[in-house]
Write a structure and sequence with these properties.
There is one protein chain. By secondary structure, the chain is an all-alpha fold. The chain is built from 15 helices and no strands. Helix 3 packs antiparallel against helix 9 (180-195), helix 3 crosses helix 11 and helix 4 runs antiparallel to helix 8. The longest helix has 29 residues, at 214-242.
């Protein structure tokens, strides 16, 4: 791993660390009466206002095909992903959601292999994924003494994982033709547009938001500014410089961050089993990034 690439790996860790804390913030908002589509709409609306200040000169992509891919990125990485994930958090255990979302790197790897034949996936990526997934199982199921299967919630979570995989594919197709702020702004815009039809069945209640306490606003701003505005930009940069497969491997760290955040915010205990699982996850991520995939990523290193 070169010095230049090392920065982007560090950026991936920091981005995933922030995303790992979003489970707690989202759960707090849901517990305060906000619906999944409301949470997404408010966080992306604030994020879109922020990104517009940075990127506002260029309105459309170079072609209708590119504009359509940007719309798909907004759908799969925005409204569809967060609607399925947030809805799942409301009807099933957070542990189920956290574990099943860790199938995202595997699904992304499969999709990348299908759509990009030039990107070879090394054995170390598969080995690292297996070790990390074993660690995820330890972290997630350690404290789940009353683990329940919720078919609807679990299927929604799997749909979220698959949706993020498709988002990564669309970003990879666009990354070399447009700058990161422009792509991120379009993702936010199309995410907002595609979530609007859901309000036909579940209308938002702005009064509830404005009558909420400081805790709700702080968590919403965290989701909008840090987890959306900042992290979508940094993640798109990471995808561009270290590739889809390697970037996705860092998503295995999500349960570790969620575990730590839950201990700090909710007072949950961190057990030796959870610590063992965390070590397995970090080892798996290290293994996955140790040997670069050949093909396109090797070209980038030259």
């Amino acid at each position: 791993m070169g010095a230049g690439k090392g920065f982007y790996h560090f950026l991936a860790v920091m981005t995933v660390a922030i995303w790992g804390a979003t489970f707690v913030s989202t759960k707090i908002l849901i517990n305060n009466g906000l619906s999944p589509n409301e949470i997404f709409f408010y966080r992306f609306l604030i994020a879109y206002a922020g990104i517009w200040i940075i990127s506002h000169k260029r309105i459309f992509a170079d072609s209708f095909k590119d504009e359509l891919m940007l719309a798909c990125a907004g759908l799969f990485g925005g409204s569809l992903y967060f609607l399925t994930e947030n809805t799942a958090l409301g009807i099933t255990q957070a542990s189920n959601v956290s574990f099943l979302l860790c199938g995202t790197p595997i699904l992304t790897t499969v999709l990348t292999r299908m759509f990009f034949r030039d990107e070879k996936i090394s054995r170390m990526v598969y080995l690292g994924s297996a070790v990390a997934l074993a660690g995820v199982a330890l972290v997630v199921f350690d404290g789940a003494t009353n683990l329940r299967i919720s078919p609807a919630g679990d299927l929604l979570t799997l749909a979220a994982a698959l949706s993020w995989g498709f988002y990564s594919i669309f970003i990879r197709k666009l990354e070399n033709r447009y700058d990161t702020p422009f792509i991120t702004r379009k993702v936010f815009f199309y995410g907002l547009v595609t979530i609007l039809p859901t309000f036909i069945f579940n209308r938002p209640d702005p009064g509830l938001l404005f009558s909420s306490g400081v805790s709700v606003w702080l968590n919403l701003l965290f989701l909008a500014v840090m987890a959306s505005l900042v992290c979508f930009m940094t993640w798109n940069v990471v995808l561009k410089h270290i590739g889809v497969v390697k970037s996705s491997s860092y998503l295995y760290l999500n349960p570790v961050i969620t575990c730590i955040t839950s201990a700090i915010v909710l007072g949950e205990k961190i057990t030796p089993v959870a610590v063992t699982g965390a070590l397995c996850i970090m080892t798996g991520v290290w293994l996955a990034g140790r040997q670069p995939a050949r093909g396109r990523e090797q070209v980038r290193r030259r």
